[in-house]
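Re: [ENG-882] Designed sequences occasionally contain unexpected residues at chain ends

Forwarding the minimal case from QA. Structure tokens:
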């Protein structure tokens, strides 16, 4: 973890510092508990109107509103799902799992089994679990 401009960042997380007066941007990445400057790359040509371009906190290049951040990279582990937001992607633990860290990228637990399931195998499994937990 790194501390940068009063923010706590996890390993691999990036933060962009935009200079509104000059239009310049510097990108930093948390690696080995230290913030490192990242070399800027050329930004891709955008196909949306200027009014639909948004500036983000984790990169120097703008993106179009409605951008699919989940398609860029898989930031969520197997028990969490990627959710697109206006300014990036976030992870959400799948049903029956709980987060292991604040960003919900890693989740633990067992998927929920609902009593009264139409599947007899699931119903029996649930009944066995209830007897063990409740001592029935």
């Amino acid at each position: 973890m790194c501390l940068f401009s009063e923010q706590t960042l996890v390993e691999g997380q990036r933060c962009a510092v935009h200079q509104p007066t000059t239009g310049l941007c510097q990108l930093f990445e948390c690696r080995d508990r230290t913030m490192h400057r990242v070399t800027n790359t050329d930004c891709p040509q955008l196909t949306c109107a200027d009014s639909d371009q948004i500036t983000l906190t984790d990169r120097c290049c703008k993106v179009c509103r409605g951008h699919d951040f989940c398609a860029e990279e898989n930031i969520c582990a197997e028990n969490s799902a990627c959710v697109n937001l206006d300014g990036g992607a976030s992870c959400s633990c799948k049903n029956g799992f709980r987060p292991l860290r604040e960003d919900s990228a890693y989740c633990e637990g067992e998927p929920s089994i609902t009593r009264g399931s139409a599947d007899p195998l699931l119903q029996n499994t649930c009944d066995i679990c209830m007897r063990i937990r409740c001592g029935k």
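QA comment: On inspection the terminal residues look reasonable. The chain has two domains: 1-64, 68-136. Proposing we downgrade this to a documentation issue.
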